[in-house]
Specification:
Structural class: alpha/beta
Number of helices: 15
Largest sheet: 7 strands, parallel
Number of strands: 13
């Protein structure tokens, strides 16, 4: 029997951080772990080691230990997590001798490039460019570009088209389950404590001002009648306490801002009325397709990347304009058939549709 080459997919945050990088990495592993072309191993910073999932001991970014070493090295806590994760990877690099390492964390990829040069490892580095980072691509052997605008921009700046693959994020979308969920909205609404008369607006993402612009959403919602209710779900950050205070002031009794499990997020996707993402720029915006795959109309800033992700299925506003979101929600002119949205998400972004292309992208690097 021919021995299949080993491939690593690595992400330091899997198991203890909920971002797009983590959900993509975990879903990609689950979609490709039975590949006939290679043996895929997931290296992660949290959770437990189970079969081909390997927990790497590292200093997690949101700890006092990370804060201490951050001061010692003069680097941020995220850098500390990435560097200690690299050290924890070493025994597995010698043991399994991967031919390809797939990653999204740019810092870790840079470390792996230096490590390869030092130990003369043979692995190729496949970078999923979710931030995105622009060229020159000096520490990557191949780059997965998620949207045409990033691919085009990289080529214009001199990056070789041959070292890049245009391939969007894949998503775990069970089409039958999603369609069946359409009948569960009111039941789940009641379990979450909402009345059927409320119009619930959902945003999912890091609870901050500087990128996700949750303050804009809060201020816009405050212009709407009392039956409009805001739900914000995401990772808490340094700016979160100020946003909690702002919401208490502007939306007393008609908001929820919290962090919940991925299973709980699913309940809100099923039961809410609108999804809003106020960030002016995203590398991709995985939450948009997650929301769409549950039949939620998505209201986004009129950026080129959002238009390439959602295509004709998005509602586009100038979210730098005061009152734009409130006006859109008040008019209630967003009429999109939930079943159509679910099927579009499945056809364009499900792992059923894309995993063959992912397998080909990885295999070409052997």
């Amino acid at each position: 029997m021919k021995i299949k080459p080993n491939v690593f997919i690595v992400c330091t945050g899997v198991g203890h951080i909920n971002r797009g990088y983590e959900s993509f990495t975990l879903e990609c592993f689950n979609a490709l772990k039975e590949s006939p072309d290679f043996e895929l191993f997931l290296l992660k910073g949290g959770g437990k080691s189970i079969q081909k999932e390997i927990k790497i001991t590292c200093i997690k970014r949101n700890t006092k230990t990370a804060a201490f070493f951050s001061k010692v090295f003069g680097k941020n806590k995220y850098w500390v997590e990435q560097f200690t994760f690299l050290l924890g990877m070493l025994p597995y690099l010698f043991r399994y001798k991967p031919v390809v390492i797939c990653y999204s964390d740019f810092i870790l990829g840079t470390f792996l490039w230096h490590l390869r040069n030092f130990f003369k490892f043979k692995y190729k580095l496949l970078f999923s460019n979710g931030a995105p980072n622009g060229p020159p691509f000096k520490t990557e052997d191949h780059v997965q570009q998620l949207l045409p605008l990033y691919m085009d921009a990289a080529i214009k700046e001199g990056a070789s088209a041959n070292m890049q693959t245009l391939l969007p994020y894949g998503f775990d979308i069970n089409i039958k389950e999603r369609l069946n969920n359409l009948s569960k909205k009111h039941e789940i609404l009641q379990k979450l404590g909402f009345s059927g008369k409320q119009k619930i607006v959902l945003s999912v993402g890091a609870v901050n001002r500087h990128h996700k612009r949750m303050d804009y959403i809060i201020n816009e919602m405050s212009k709407l009648p009392e039956n409009y209710f805001l739900v914000i779900l995401g990772q808490f950050e340094a700016e979160t306490p100020d946003l909690l205070s702002l919401a208490e002031q502007k939306l007393p009794g008609r908001h929820i801002i919290t962090s919940v499990s991925l299973q709980e997020v699913e309940k809100y996707y099923i039961s809410t009325d609108y999804f809003v993402l106020a960030s002016l720029i995203e590398g991709f915006g995985r939450v948009l397709i997650e929301a769409q795959s549950y039949g939620l109309p998505c209201i986004v800033h009129e950026s080129e990347n959002a238009k390439q992700v959602l295509k004709e299925y998005g509602t586009y506003l100038n979210m730098e304009e005061d009152g734009a979101l409130a006006s859109c929600l008040m008019k209630e002119q967003i009429v999109q058939e939930k079943e159509l949205l679910i099927k579009a998400a499945y056809n364009n972004y499900s792992w059923d549709a894309l995993k063959g292309e992912y397998s080909d992208m990885i295999s070409k690097l052997f």
